[in-house]
Amino acid sequence: MKHNISTPPPCPRASHVIGLCKKFVYDSTFTYPLVIRTGKGCYIEDIDGNIFLDFSSNIGACPLGYSHPEILQVLAEYSKNGAHKIAGQDFYSEEHALLASKVSSITPENFKAFFVNSGAEAVENAIKIAYSRMGPLPGVSCTGAFHGRTLGALTFTFSKPVQKANFPEFAVKRIKFCTADGDPDIESIEPLLKENKAAFILSEVVQGEGGYNFASLQFMKNLSKFSKLYGVPLILDEVQSGMGRTGRWWAFEHYDIKPDIMSAAKALQVGAAIYHRDLEPARQGVLSSTWGGGSRIDMAVGAKTIDIIARDRLLENAAKIGSVLKKSLQDIVGKGGLVDVRGLGLMIGVEFDTKQNRDSKLVSLFKKGLLLLPAGQKAMRMIPPLIINDEEAQEGLEIIDEVLRSSQ
Fold it and tell me: Based on the domain organization, do 133 and 173 belong to the same domain?
């Protein structure tokens, strides 16, 4: 299969759907006039038959691409289950136990998981776990951070003003997210913790929505070191960067550190607050969620996804193909307003000189049949399925090169 735009969108069928959404749905962050019908492998088909090469993976939520035969088999099995969704904190299920055991096998020793619906809820419960131990003290988060849009997580989000305007906040202290070891603010966490009591430090390892910014090694080491020194839990948000995206199960593994608490979602198919068992709230009922641990289809797909990533050596594939993509893009920096390329595995940020140029390039790539998404102010996020092969990587690079050349 290859990309093929036979009827440039938006076509009549797509326009009808988009019109209904504009009439009845809040116009949120829709990027393209794309109405998805189905997909196969690394490709998405719209309702008018156009085929797009997907370098977005629905923001990493589809790590195995589309129509993976083993995932389809799971879905087929559960199509006959009359109780596929239950109140997962009131009743047990095999899927809950299985997914928890699979997550335990890829996280640090002595960690437990609390499943919820989404990444934002995973962050909410991660900070609740910290608050339950430390009390209602200020939390520490980073400039450029994105941790979700529910009000608690939104306090610690700091990527775009529109996400926060007029909303209330918890007590918070902010530090600079440092991407270079030589940054003069690299040790700002120590004086802050020395002068202030804090409930937790919350940081991404790779900022997703904030622009695909990669933490410097020393910055992460400092967060880990001083969180231990001052007895403050370190929460690492791996909602977008986790589950093999960077070539390892978790991005923090590149830094030789371990969090006390972490959040996961997207590729996992459900949200999860994952924590060292020493931080488990002492009283039953401190954490709960009606559907947490109750979306049996999603949990079964999540468990199967972990199996497939491990069996098919997709961590190695992410590292290999990601290296090819990053190097090829770095070789054309300077063309068409491309100013920087950065990445780990299949999590690559492509930075342009201006937001306007970035936005126009996104549209041009879409019209040519390649899907990417914006990140930060001027970057695109390149986050293809972990199953991508050399031919598909080259196909995407050729489209990018064509679009950049045409704007010279």
Answer: yes
| 362 within domain boundaries | no
Q: Are residues 84 and 21 in the same domain?
A: no
State the CATH number of the domain containing residue 131: 3.40.640.10
Extract the runs of DSSP E, i.e. beta strands, from 267-346.
Answer: 271-276, 338-344
pLDDT in tens, 13-69: 999 999 999 999 999 989 889 999 999 999 999 999 999 999 999 999 999 999 999
How far the first Cα of the chain sits from its last, in Å, is 30
- State the total domains in the chain: 2
Per DSSP, 113 falls in state E
pTM of the full structure: 0.96
Tens of pLDDT, residue by residue over 106-133, are 999 999 999 999 999 999 999 999 999 9
CA-nearest of 146, 104, 98, 152 to 126 is 152
Residues contacting residue 355 through CB under 8 Å, at least 6 positions apart: 377, 378
Domain hosting residue 16, numbered range: 1-46
Do the domain assignments include residue 257?
yes
**Does residue 377 form part of some domain?**
no
Task: Fill in the DSSP letter of residue 8.
Answer: P
In our burial notation (b when 16+ CB lie closer than 10 A, e otherwise), range 230-267 reads bebbbbbbbbbbbbbbbbbbbbbbbbebbbbbbbbbbb
Distances from the Cα of 358 to the Cα of 143, 231, 337, 375, angstroms: 22, 42, 8, 10
Look up residue 394 and give its amino acid: Q
Phi, psi angle pair for 34, to nearest 5°:
-110, 125
Rounded-to-integer distance, Cα 288 and Cα 96, Å = 14
Three-state DSSP class for residue 349: strand
Q: Are the C-beta atoms of 99 and 303 separated by less than 8 Å?
A: yes
CA–CA dist 347, 322 (Å, integer):
7
Judgement on whether residues 2 and 103 belong to the same structural domain of the protein: no
